UniProtKB/TrEMBL annotation:
InterPro entries in UniProt: DUF72, UPF0759_sf
Domain of life, source organism: Bacteria
Annotated source species: Thermosporothrix hazakensis
Protein name: Uncharacterized protein YecE (DUF72 family)
Lineage of the organism: Bacteria, Bacillati, Chloroflexota, Ktedonobacteria, Ktedonobacterales
SUPFAM superfamilies, A to Z: TM1631-like
Length: 273
């Protein structure tokens, strides 16, 4: 089941959309987002007052210890959610083979987030052809909602896709296929929506790293039509602060469907509301 809603958080309703960025420790966000004199240790507290969710991206490169996750949770306001990207050791090096030990280490660390823990993201490697047996072995072990980003076209072949969706439907927890926008392998536009929640990752716009207003308006309309219980949307186009710019604009376009920050930005900035 999805994480419980804690006191003070927004009441979740069908169609609720969480919008944020993939990661928060980016020195090149100083100026476009972070104030010049903020130390890196202050970035997360500042970020959480401007967005209601973040995708932990560093866990892909190096799995954090549980104490790190506990420290991040202490900096987050009630209701804030962290999505957790699985380690590349599990997804790219082992390619999901014998996942029990690697998955347990990931979950043990992430549970340090407590009530702030959101879904897990499993981004599978490019050029790794579909292996439904390994996927099924991993899915059977899941204890938290999970999203899967498939980056080889073989996963989307019609005969494979139907079996893939069945594997996810039979999971012990809600699972979904990531809608990837831009990047090396965008998700096929006709992919059927899966699972009880949506997960979208925005890698880059059609004409550059950033997304045009027209593109964001198109995606806002598509998100409005996503009638699953809720959706998570993360911008991975971090250069020059495009991720926070585009996430902020998409949230504006979504209006009341988007979850708002749980602490007013004016409070975070030290100004009176």
């Amino acid at each position: 089941m999805l994480p419980p809603i804690v006191e003070g958080a927004v009441v979740m309703e069908k169609g609720t959309i969480w919008v944020g960025a993939s990661g928060w420790v980016y020195p090149h966000w100083v100026g476009p987002f972070y104030p010049a004199k903020r130390s890196e240790s202050d970035y997360l507290a500042f970020y959480t007052r401007h967005f209601p969710t973040v995708e932990i991206n560093r866990s892909f490169y190096r799995l954090p210890e549980r104490r790190h996750c506990e420290a991040w949770a202490r900096l987050a306001p009630p209701g804030f959610r962290f999505a957790v990207k699985a380690s590349r050791y599990l997804t790219h090096m082992k390619k999901l083979k014998d996942p029990q030990e690697s998955l347990q280490r990931l979950v043990t660390a992430a549970e340090g987030l407590g009530e702030h823990l959101g879904p897990f993201l499993f981004q599978l490697p490019p050029h790794w052809r579909a292996n439904l047996d390994r996927l099924a072995d991993l899915v059977a072990l899941l204890r938290y909602p999970a999203a899967f980003e498939f980056r080889d076209a073989s996963w989307f072949a019609p005969e494979t896709l139907s079996r893939l969706l069945k594997v996810l439907e039979q999971a012990p927890v809600p699972c979904t296929v990531v809608i990837a926008v831009g990047g090396s392998l965008p998700t096929p536009p006709d992919l059927p929506l899966s699972g009880s929640f949506g997960y979208y990752r925005f890698h880059q716009g059609s004409e550059g790293i950033g997304f045009s207003d027209e593109e964001l308006m198109t995606w806002a309309e598509r998100l409005r039509k996503d009638r699953r219980r809720e959706a998570y949307v993360y911008f991975n186009n971090d250069p020059k602060g495009y991720a926070v710019r585009d996430a902020t604009r998409l949230r504006e376009l979504l209006g009341p469907l988007a979850v708002r920050p749980f602490v007013p930005a004016s409070v975070a900035d030290g100004r009176r509301a």
